[in-house]
Amino acid sequence: MEAKVIQGLHLTTWISSDKTVPTMSSSMRLSNRFEKTKRVNMLKCDHFGTIKPAIEHRAARLKVPCTSQNFPASILESETLTSEEDLLLQKKSEEIEPCLSGRCIYLVGMMGSGKTTIGQILSEVLGYSFFDCDKLIEQAAGGTAVADIFKHRGESYFRDNETEVLHKLSSMRRLVISTGGGAVIRPINWKYMQKGVSIFIDVPLDALAKRLTAIGTASRPLLHHGSGDAYTQTFKRLCKLWEERSEAYSNAQVTVSLERIASKLGHEDVCSVNPTQIAIEALIRIEEYLKKE
Hints:
alpha/beta, Rossmann fold, five-stranded parallel sheet, two-stranded antiparallel sheet, 11 helices, 46% helix, globular, shikimate kinase activity, Shikimate_kinase/TSH1, ATP-binding, transferase
């Protein structure tokens, strides 16, 4: 039996009727993660290349050519290759999941910070369901893209719907929720998010500007390019948004800093940090937060 997540917005996303998600066993979660490798694929950081995905799932003895979009050629002796990072991610999730007691996880951060990718990884290893607030709002608007909602209905209309989505989701359990970059600006939204555990994904603005410029900003209604270099315009706009939001981001109960992860791992560039490493750091920080409660 299923029930609508956001009845007031007539959304088409569903979860079980008791507002919880059945818990999967550890082996099921790990297997599920391998089968959905594409969901933890690389974060494009700039136009020169991509970040190494944490898991590669290939047929036995399949030779992989070396190109700009993958990694050095190799022959895999087994069907599924697990890395130490994947095993650490699984181990940490098994330790933390009972301590969460079903509380939802809310990811906040600037646009392009990887909230959706990280959220999908966390949901899989924890046995939670994943929801993207922007996608839910688009569904409620009959499939209208966020950029078009801003254009035709205005930002206030979008923010009202965003608040309603967070209100509905806050009454549920065992969810990982990716919020929009501006969700933090309304105090009422924090009232709902503080019912769970909120995590701020902190990415340097220059890295965000590189990534957003590389993938394009057409779908980002708050990144309006003026004349001149696209990267420069994007960076300037991100700096302005950061000035407006940085204090609000500090309300998050947990902060995951890509600069800190890069330093720990000996990377000179935050773009060398992969999604699995970010997810592991998120679980470590959640564990520290829960111990202090």
